[in-house]
Amino acid sequence: MAVVSRNHQRAPGNLCILVCGCAAVFATPARAADLPAPAPAAASVDWYTGAQAQAVDDSWAVAVDGSTSITSNSSAFGSVTVTTALGSPPTVSGARVRVEAVAGTYSYPGQGVGARVTGYQQEGSLLTGYEWIWREAALAGYVGFNVRSNQLSIPDPGNPVVGTGVGLKVAGNFYATPTDRTMVSAYGSYSTKFNAYYSRFRVGYMVADGVYIGPEALFLGDDFFRQYRVGAHLSGLSFGPVQMSLAAGYVRDRVQGTGYYSSIEARANF
């Protein structure tokens, strides 16, 4: 899963991700280990931003993703995800370890208390998994646990997503370039803590060297809220060693109603 977001539980895959419009979930918006060129003779596309990779680069071992996301429905979240390969270069199939951190705030009209309620969320996850890399695609799956804390400014009997606890978490992500000018990516995550889920699907068309534009759709929620987002993304922007992705669009939340969202994601390899 993101990031990554009242967002996103999730982000690998899932900066996974991903801010919600109401009470919290939030994983890192789509995060995963990378998709570098698997063969020296062929250029492929980075899984995260769509940036062209002209040759295999085994010189880095850790990918750091960061994201921020805000909505007009009074939520703002940020996330950081660190993914590393175990026992093999990150450019080939192998085991992965991922650490995620998400924090943010949100507010909503408390129906049972007659006042506006502000929520504060912090979450940390530790996941292990495996990534399969092919010439034009990558697929990764993760399993682990997350610790999530939710606090409210005033008690709200109508919101069961309160307190601190540990949950089992699973996540997966997929990236492919079906043609020389198109890309497809998907990320999803689920935690047993508050039944929090996050998913994002993107398709893109290359409009410049390594730069993709296209639609995206997100679905996220937990035991208190449900939300979906529909928008557009611009992926593949490079600023030195940092690759970036921008997105914006429409959001519909069960508690907060309709609004708008925007997100910025970035990745750097070390």
The CATH superfamily title: monomeric porin ompg
- Give the second-level CATH assignment, the architecture: Beta Barrel
| CATH topology label | Porin
The unreliable regions are 1-56
Q: Roughly how many Å apart are the termini?
A: 21 Å
| Main CATH class | Mainly Beta
Q: What Rg, in angstroms, do the CA atoms define?
A: 18 Å
Would you mind describing this structure in some detail?
It contains no helices and 14 strands. The chain is mostly beta strands. The strands form 2 sheets. The chain has a 12-stranded antiparallel beta barrel with strand order 3-4-5-6-7-8-9-10-11-12-13-14. A two-stranded antiparallel ribbon has the order 1-2. The model is unreliable at 1-56 (pLDDT under 50). A hairpin with a 4-residue loop joins strand 5 and strand 6. The chain has strands spanning 44-45, 52-53, 62-71, 75-86, 94-110, 115-133, 137-152, 163-176, 182-191, 196-208, 211-221, 226-239, 242-253, 257-269. The protein has one domain: Beta Barrel (Porin).
